[in-house]
Amino acid sequence: MLIWFLPVFLLFLLLGLPVFFGLIAAPGLLLLIEGQTRDFTLLYRNVYNGMDSFPLMAIPFFMLAGELMNRGGITIRLVEFSQAFMGHLRGGLAHVNVLSSMLFAGLSGSAVADTSALGSMLIPAMEKQGYTRRFAAAITAASSVIGPIIPPSGIMIIYAYVMGESVAALFLAGIVPGVLVGVGLMLMVRWQADRYDFPVATRKHTWRERGNASLKAFFPLMTPVIIIGGILGGVFTPTEAAAVAVAWALLVGLFVMRSMRISDLPDVLTRAGITSAVVLLLVGAAMAFKTVVSLSHAPEILADFILNLTDNPLLLLLLINLLLFVVGMFLDAGPAIIILGPILGPVFVDLGVHPVHFAIIMSVNLTVGLATPPMGLVLFVASSVSKERVETIARAILPFLAVEIFVIFLITYIPALSLAIPRWTGFVQ
């Protein structure tokens, strides 16, 4: 009977119950019905045990670092840097939007933060230059999904913890897919710019002006270098790297750029604390949920079902991509990984898919779901920032979604795209 925990959970979601309560109420109810009191106690004890982890401290630290960067005016420096190098191209501001998202990803790792911070600046600027508001909102939403792919990434920290993988390996595995998404979006912008005669944002900057823009953006751009370099060099763990990122963000905002005041810190800490609390509660519930998954033998049942459909691994990967794409339309990436990771991960690892490769397939797929109609979260954020209707943005974003889906299939069927850097650095065998 425990196998019914997933349908019951989905029913709770349809009734409007928050994900956290659904994650613990669905299995808890079934355990009580079956009279498994000891397992019921274990379920709720694991909510706390799931949060009581040193590696998970990376999440609130990265959240805080992202908030500090946002408040410290880092976004402006990144946009100026991007415009100095790409603003002279046809469709320049759209290219700047994508490149800024790629750079911002190395600071915040959040698609929502990307959409909100960059969208509030670039959408009005693009509209003034003659772009339609729906196009500006669409490219902002589409490029923001790069945020959780290029390290640091909150959802990859969650996946690594829930599935017992290396955070550093997942961070490194996300670099090439994130860059591929960014380059693919730029190629689509270039095609649309030629077809619809998009405007040029600025004149071509001289190398001296580009050098000045690079100097202004130097300290913000050093953030991902410090994080990844420190992890790879063995100087600190991913959790310690997150704390270093906070210290660096404070140093840059308060003393180097002087774009933030001490009086700003209470609000920054509050916002980061609330966001971190939501994520950590979900992770705690996920670990409890994972207990029932193992008790119900759901992975074994699902494996038998999948293998009865086909034993062709290429076709199985196609099916799982379709499943994850549909799930991503309705469920945020974090909760989806928490729910489906323990069920799907073991199945595909047993089929011979490398665990880090599958982690990237799942993470990128669900991240793209953040911008996918009808329930993509960043679509609603872009709508709020641009004052454009969600349905209108959803239609304009379709060409960019097609590019992102193409990249998903590339990384699915060419494992080296994800695994080359982790193997080269020795984090994956």
List the helices and strands and how they pair.
Elements: H1 5-14, H2 19-33, H3 37-51, H4 58-71, H5 74-86, H6 92-105, H7 111-128, H8 133-144, H9 154-163, H10 167-173, H11 175-196, H12 207-232, H13 238-256, H14 265-296, H15 298-309, H16 313-330, H17 333-350, H18 355-368, H19 377-386, H20 390-396, H21 398-413, H22 416-424
Helix pairs in contact: 1-2, 2-3, 2-14, 3-14, 4-13, 4-14, 5-6, 5-12, 6-7, 6-8, 6-11, 7-8, 7-19, 8-19, 8-20, 9-17, 10-22, 11-21, 12-13, 14-17, 15-17, 16-18, 16-21, 17-18, 18-21
Q: Please, could you describe this protein's structure?
A:
This protein is mainly α. The protein has one domain (2-424). Helices cover 77% and strands 0% of the residues. It has 22 helices and no strands. Helix 3 packs antiparallel against helix 14 and helix 5 (74-86) packs across helix 6. The two termini are 39 Å apart.
Entry summary:
With 429 residues, the protein is mainly alpha-helical.
Q: What attributes does this structure have?
A:
mainly alpha
**What's the quaternary structure here?**
single chain
- Helical fraction: over 70%
Mass-distribution shape? globular
What is the H/E order? HHHHHHHHHHHHHHHHHHHHHH
Question: How many beta-strand elements?
Answer: 0
The N- to C-terminal Cα distance equals: 39 Å
The structural class is mainly alpha
Q: Provide the residue-averaged pLDDT.
A: 82
Count of domain modules: 1
Share of residues in strands: under 5%
Radius of gyration: 22 Å
